[in-house]
Amino acid sequence: MELSFSRTNGIIDTLIESLLAEVGTIHHPELIREMIISALKSGIECNYLADLKLLNNTMKEMRYTTNVFAPYRPKKKVTIFGSARTEPHEQIYQTCVTFSRKLAEKGFMIITGGGPGIMQAGNEGAGSENSFAVNIRLPFEQQPNPVMLQNPRLINYKYFFNRKVAFVKESSALAVFPGGFGTLDEAMEVFTLIQTGKTSPKPLVLIDDNDGYWDRWFEFVKTCILGKGFISAEDFSIFTITRDVDEAIQIIEQFYRTYHSLRFFEERLIIRLNKELTQAQVEELENEFPEIRRDGSRITRCAPLPEEADEPDLLRLPRISLQFNHQHYGLLMAFIGRINSF
User: Fold this and answer.
1) CA 238, CA 256: separation in Å to the nearest integer?
2) Contact partners, residue 140, CB within 8 Å, separation at least 6
3) Mean pLDDT over residues 270-285, rounded?
4) Which of 101, 265, 293, 295 would be 125's cystine partner, CB 3.0–4.6 Å?
5) What is residue 54's predicted lDDT score, i.e. its pLDDT?
6) Which InterPro entries match (predicted)?
7) What CATH architecture does domain 73-255 belong to?
8) Which regions of 280-329 does DSSP assign to beta strands (E)?
9) What span, in angstroms and rounded, lies between the C-alpha atoms of 130 and 126?
10) How far apart are the C-alpha atoms of 248 and 39, rounded to whole Å?
């Protein structure tokens, strides 16, 4: 049978509606209906068992992730990446403990990969009560650390890609300590997501050790990546390198000083603010960042759009609006930094 997402499926649509009604309280039933149709279409179109297992397990892991994080949505969280092989006696381990402890004291929660090394240091500093662990099942290195072993906010993933979604989607900021292939993979993915606008802007802090791990990486980036034109200089606005945990925390807090969040409606970018900007400040932004606006468009102060009614807790916030060109996400990070200077 050919199924469609439009309501042209006859008795199948009737059965789905009956199923939804029988279950009772269903949030956003139109979306749930499409998910059911997607599952049915997969069963019709795919006869390869491994692919169906992948779809099924992905859905189950993401549903459980949402369920674990949902009660803590109002709280800001910082994701910490770093090597599983860092030992507790090493200075960078203790730096991470201090960093996460100070963040927890300021009301942040910590997300780590849940394993040993820097991950354990992040959970240790914040304490189990302020921590999440998004662990990956591996044959070595990645058993849950003792801080998080019995924690209800421990999630064990089969798939790296679901785990990566949790790391980025649920965080307000990310801190990356020195590490191996896994750490660099996680860091580079965040660079890419911010650079291409596939995740909301958020501070990315690279916390260096005394050997200059990130300093040496930065030299490579400037010489080999920027030098060959593979990135633009504006992309350096995406991250900050520091050895000072207090500076790292200040960068994270400063990012949300005036800026609150953003949302796209086609070409229109709405930036929600913690305090209202004056018209003179808006004009300064226009003059300093013409590259991020479509030609002939303006930056304006505005009221919430009708489409924002699905986030009622944010309707009280002042806003500015612009026609973003979807090209300069590095400059968008700098633009947010300028907003926070007011």
Assistant:
1) 15
2) none
3) 97
4) 101
5) 97
6) LOG (IPR005269), LOG_fam (IPR031100), LOG_family_nucleotidases (IPR052341)
7) 3-Layer(aba) Sandwich (3.40)
8) 300-302, 319-323
9) 6
10) 44
